[in-house]
Design brief:
alpha+beta, Trna Endonuclease, Chain: A, domain 1, 5-stranded mixed beta sheet, 3 helices, 5 strands
Length: 140
């Protein structure tokens, strides 16, 4: 059932996925602290990947996913990060996050049949205000 303009009800992920998201946020905070706001998204992605490597957080960068429509492959889409094979991370360096950014991440979660994603905007004056947690309620 689609949610028209509203976030779906909060469904907590399992303990392992929750811990993975906390570790990723810690790594992102370190990259943000060291670099500060105002740079390009690609620089933040490279810094975050370096930080996750240093912290032994498993990840894949710029993962291509298949987009299937009615049993036919219609194309591929690149996601910024897949952490631990379970957490989709979409990075931004924009003035303000919009509902479209969250909808984009929700679509990736739906396509991949994953439960949790993080939207991280490195251009926030206050880091925690640039983090949005997106849950796919239909994932099992």
């Amino acid at each position: 059932m689609p949610y028209e303009g509203e976030d779906p009800p909060l469904v907590e992920p399992d303990v392992e996925l929750n811990e993975l998201s906390h570790r990723l946020i810690g790594a992102a905070f370190e990259a943000y602290t060291q670099l500060g706001p105002g740079l390009d998204e690609i620089l933040y992605r490279k810094a975050l990947c370096r930080e996750m490597t240093l912290r032994n957080i498993p990840f894949q960068c710029e993962v291509c996913i298949d987009v299937i429509y009615k049993d036919e492959l219609i194309g591929r889409k690149r996601i910024d990060l897949l952490v631990g094979g379970r957490l989709v991370v979409e990075l931004k360096a924009v003035e303000i996050l919009t509902p479209l950014h969250k909808a984009q991440l929700r679509t990736y979660l739906k396509i991949m049949r994953l439960k949790l994603g993080l939207l991280i905007n490195f251009n926030s004056a206050i880091f925690k205000e640039g983090i949005k947690r997106v849950v796919n309620p239909s994932a099992t």
